[in-house]
Amino acid sequence: MKNPTVVIITGVSSGIGRATADALARQGCRVFGTVRDMAKTQAIPGVTLIEMDIRDDASIAHGIQTVIAAAKRVDVLVNSAGVTLLGATEETSIDEARVLFDTNFFGLLRMIKAVLPHMREQRSGRIVNVSSVLGFLPAPYMALYSASKHAVEGLSETLDHEVRQFGIRVTLVEPSFTKTNLDRNAPQAAARIPDYDKELAIVAQAIESNINKAPEPDGVASTIVEAALGAWKVRHTPKGEASLLARLRRFMPAGPVGKGVRKTFGLA
């Protein structure tokens, strides 16, 4: 009997990460899911939970060694963990930007650097980085989150060229609004500049409205499973709004795209 595909997925305590871990386990994979606090996380059938903080090198090293000791290999890494931040760019402090990038970009980079030696040794592997449509589109009052996802996109495309010589491929998944707590409970920049208050309130309301009518995370999870186990391609956009936005960005002039973005976020 063929050995099951060994998958590590970050951020499985809720939302897209949790739905993906469940979906991969149902596919017969041997799934290890990372969480920051084991005591606050409900078990997922078929998923081995590992307490790990992707902002901490020692925590990552210990977690990866736990997987290697148990499974002897890593076939797929899914970087799903992320945080967001709402606020005008001018209001956002450098410290707030560092905190966001420490998870969304440097956390992802730490995980990649931890698994690549094992993937190179076995001469195979797949790295799936969960980006966003904001990795190729702007979003007013979400500049730092959008910047982090643009960074993930650039890293992923470049890394794929470097590691394919070892039988490793890197791919992106770019979801749009999804019914999770990530955006619904988005923290706001601590500083306040009153000139931005009116538009920021409009954008926050538009985000909440879009999340309320957005699909459940299962659809994104299905796309991540395809990206992890299916034929390689550089980008995967879930069916529906994300796929439509990808086509619009590719084929429409910048002016109409910009107008569409402003309309989505409730701006004139």
According to DSSP, the number of beta strands is 7
Percent range for β-strand residues: 5-15%
The third-level CATH topology is: Rossmann fold
Rg on CA atoms, Å: 18 Å
Indicate the percent of residues in helices: 40-55%
- Would you identify the CATH H-level superfamily? NAD(P)-binding Rossmann-like Domain
Largest sheet: 7 strands, parallel
The CATH class label is Alpha Beta
Report on this model:
- The chain has 268 residues and is α/β, with parallel strands linked by helices.
- The protein has one domain (6-264): 3-Layer(aba) Sandwich (Rossmann fold), CATH 3.40.50.
- Helices cover 49% and strands 12% of the residues.
- It contains 10 helices and 7 strands.
- The chain has helices at 15-26, 57-71, 94-104, 106-122, 143-163, 181-184, 197-212, 218-229, 241-251, 254-264, and strands spanning 6-9, 30-35, 47-51, 76-79, 125-130, 168-173, 235-236.
- Strands 3-2-1-4-5-6-7 form a 7-stranded parallel beta sheet, with helices on both faces.
- The chain starts with 5 loop residues before the first strand and ends with a helix.
- The model has no long low-confidence stretch (mean pLDDT 94).
Furnish the topology, listing elements before pairings.
Elements: E1 6-9, H1 15-26, E2 30-35, E3 47-51, H2 57-71, E4 76-79, H3 94-104, H4 106-122, E5 125-130, H5 143-163, E6 168-173, H6 181-184, H7 197-212, H8 218-229, E7 235-236, H9 241-251, H10 254-264
Parallel strand pairs: 1-2, 1-4, 2-3, 4-5, 5-6, 6-7
Helix pairs in contact: 1-8, 2-4, 3-5
Summarize the model shown.
The chain is of the alpha/beta class. The chain has helices at 15-26, 57-71, 94-104, 106-122, 143-163, 181-184, 197-212, 218-229, 241-251, 254-264; strands at 6-9, 30-35, 47-51, 76-79, 125-130, 168-173, 235-236. The longest helix is centred in the middle third of the chain and has 21 residues, at 143-163.
